[in-house]
Amino acid sequence: MRRKNRGFTLLEILLAIALSALLLVTVYSVYFSIARAVYATLESQELLETGRILLEMLKRDIRGISGTRFPLVSTVEEINGKSVTNVVFVTSAPSSTNPFRWNKVGYTLTQDRQGQWIFVKKAAKNPNDNLDEIGTVFEVSRLVNSFRMTFFDGTQWVDQWDSRSTGKLPKQIRISVELSDEKKNVQTFTAEEDISSAV
Per the confidence metrics, is the pTM higher than 0.90? Predict the structure, then answer.
């Protein structure tokens, strides 16, 4: 008996190619949607982590404020239509530059030459030093686009404070930091901290 060798027909080959293409498109679309979801989650996680770290750093320094021996001075500056808090105070919270003594610190939001906002911390070992002249400037984050501190005097919240003129420290400080990522996702983080020596 003769055996008949039979190959694939053109229709079968085209059908197999179409099914393979459909399967590949489905796999790639699922892969890319999962990748986008993971990337968005990572970006959101970065905002949350940065916000948590910033608030904890600020609260730790505020907890270290003690007595009225050194002044707490906060001003509000208008930069390109944006209100920016500048705050300077002396804290007993340990720092990498001076872990065992009083440290003078300042926080503000500034712009670089390209116009990008940068949250910076200034620090000096000597409480009497001028931070703008002697202080070391640390870039804290480029995700911050708003920084505001308000102060509770016992009856109301105020935007600025100068213990040199009031002769006292605020009873409580409210911190508000707004962060945004490259995709313009925005999150605001708020915390309040008591100043134990003022209560």
Answer: no
